[in-house]
Each structure stands twice: as structure tokens, then as C-alpha cells.
């Protein structure tokens, strides 16, 4: 019996899932770590905390580690880790939530406006990206960007400490290299830094190397896949790469979009995953705050996320209250780090249930905003939306998503789609079977739901109001 370990190094916790060759989950566990905000717009983590979390989950997994036949690691991106040649971090990791490099992103936008030509994929310039962060480091901490340094993503850091290999994939390293040619981009060259800082690039489902004899975590000689971003691994587990599919993956933020047969040309505000980076292309976007916005509102009103969810559906009428969940700016499709959240349409008649409704549906509207744009760009009109993330185990959330998206929604029984996707990469690397084929076997049971036409129409009225307030907020 072959078993594969999938590791997801997420924003707030490291999750590990073990599956067997029949796609059954044998064990799972997780361990959290701290996020530090030492200055305004700075969001950092200590990579050594990730190693401690990995050690903890491997100790707690109820399996014999010697039986593992393959490992896949995915993680938060773009989170920049700078190490020396021994894999020691030279500074705290700058997470994807870190927006200190807004000025650098703005400079790049002027200097290299045609990102698609330079990168081989569409990607808005934003401070969350790798290159603006590197440019900030060159200005403020130039001594750490030497020939003997390496620029890694979070999952690449764990990969090195398992295998001793500096490897990454072309999607996670976007901007440093062209997605198709794998050559350094013009944007990278403009920084005048040594090319040696860029790790070796391969496919996410290829073997990066085997666990080394001296590693502190797993037995030696286990093949380890190069790995992917947690978002794309989640898409893999939701069968997004198996055929054109709309999807929403929920966590601290939402990842929403559509896989398609062909990418559209022209400028837009979403990210594209070309065929050079995935089995089929994807047009998608990440929001900035989803679950984190709901947790914030629950704390603010001395409530719980579950209570907000149930209260949000108490009234069957269209609500005038609107919430834009831009608590830390917004990524797709707005890409504004300076924009902030707001409540609109409040009155003396507004009750707690109305506020709860505004928060929950406001978070849902951000995902629809992305999917609607992806539909217009891709020409794909899928009849269902695949849902990933723990929240979608709730029937209430499936109802809300179906109302907002005006579609049948399908929730996957395995809530942690990213770690399942990581395990699929491990199985693909070890067996040579295409990951999108394995995904059909390992995706687990599915639950479908379709809201009533009346409820879909009511949500659509509110969505129109939401878009009106978005326009007011960004202008």
C-alpha cells in the first residue's frame, strides 16, 4: 500500500494530510504559528516557526513515517523568504499580506506596464508580489541580497530542509522568471541582482529530490515533489484542472475564478495561470479578506462566525445594508492596498441580523465579482461552482454561495483541499500519472445545493447595490 503526505504551509497554520493509493485519508493534523506586524503594512513570519510546526505535525500524525512513499509541499504565496546557502533565513519572511512595497510596485507599473509579455502570464503589479518585495529589500536591506543568498517561497524553504535542494515552480516564482522560457525577466534584470538568487525551476508534480540523510523530519530517500502554491493545489483537489470549472476556495481570504480552454488576450485585473504552469489555463483572483473579515466582525460584535452566518439568513427580504470587506485593502479585482472597509445603507432600523447579513454577503460578493469578470474574459459559462474550504461544509454557506453565484454549488467533503492537492502532487511525482487524472480519484465525496430562484434574485439585487458602492469607494 502506497501512502502520500501532503503538507500545506498556510497563512496561519501548517496542515498535513496522509492519503493512500485509494484516495482515503489516513491521518491529518495541523500546527499554528504567529504572524508579526512590527510596523504599519509590515506582515512577517519567522520561517523557523514553520520548521517547528512541521516537526510537531509529523510527530502527531498517527502513521509510521517510514511507510510514506512520497511528499508534496504547497504553501502561501507570494511570501518571500531570503536564506543563505545552508537554508538559514536571513530575515523574517515577508508574507503575501505585507504591503510595505507599494511604492516599488507603482514604480514597476510605470517601468514595465506589459507584464504579460515579460512574465508570460497576466499579473497586476501589487505590493504582495515577489519583485516589489525584492526591490524594497534592495533599497533598505541590500546586504542580504548577495550571490550566496536564495529567494524562496514558503514551501521552497521547507523543501530545502527536507532535501537540501533549492527548487521552485514557475508559478510560485512568477516575475523572477518568464513562465514559459524560464529565463530571468526584464523586471528582474532591472534590479541588477545576481541570477544565482533564483532557485532551480521545475514542474510542481516533478521530483525535486529525495529526503536527505541528514534531514531532521522524515526518513531518508523519500521522493519530494517540487510543489505549488496553496491556491493552485486547492484548485487541483477541486478538479479545476480536470475540465473548465468555476470555483471558490475559502480561508483567511477567498480564491475565485474559472479554468478554461483558452486564455483571453488583452489587459485585465485578474491573474492568469497559463498552460506552461498548469494542466489547463485558469483566470482567477485572490481577495484580501474573507474568513478574516468574518472573524473581525464576530469579535467586534461580541459574537461568533457561526452566529453571524445563521443571523444573516433570518430575513427573506432584500437588505439595504452593504459591507465592503476591505479591512486591509483589496486584491482582485481592485488591487488597492490603500482602500478600506465600509458599511453602507445603515439606518435606525438596522438590526444585528442586518449587519451580520451585510458582512457575510459582502464577503461572498467579492468572490462573485471575480468570477463574473473571469466569465467575461474566458467565455466559459459553467453550470456549477466547486467550493473548497472548511466553511463550505456548512449547509448555510452552500445556500449563501448558491444565492450569490446564481448557480448550483458543489462542496467537496475534504475541506482542506490544499493539503489534499499537495498529496496528489506527491502521488503524481512518484507514479508519473498526471495530477489532474489523480484528482478525479482523490477528490472525495461531494454535496450539491441550489438555492431557490427567488433567493437568487434577492441576492442579485443586493449584489447590484454592492457594485455601486465599490465604484464609489474606488473613485
TrEMBL record:
Keyword annotations from UniProtKB, A to Z: Kinase, Transferase
GO molecular function: kinase activity
Pfam families, per database record: FGGY_C (PF02782), FGGY_N (PF00370)
Domain Carbohydrate kinase FGGY C-terminal stretches: 251-430
Signal peptide: none
Keyword Cytoplasm belongs to the record: no
Any GO BP: carbohydrate metabolic process
Domain Carbohydrate kinase FGGY N-terminal: 3-236
Name the record gives this protein: Unannotated protein
Originating species: freshwater metagenome
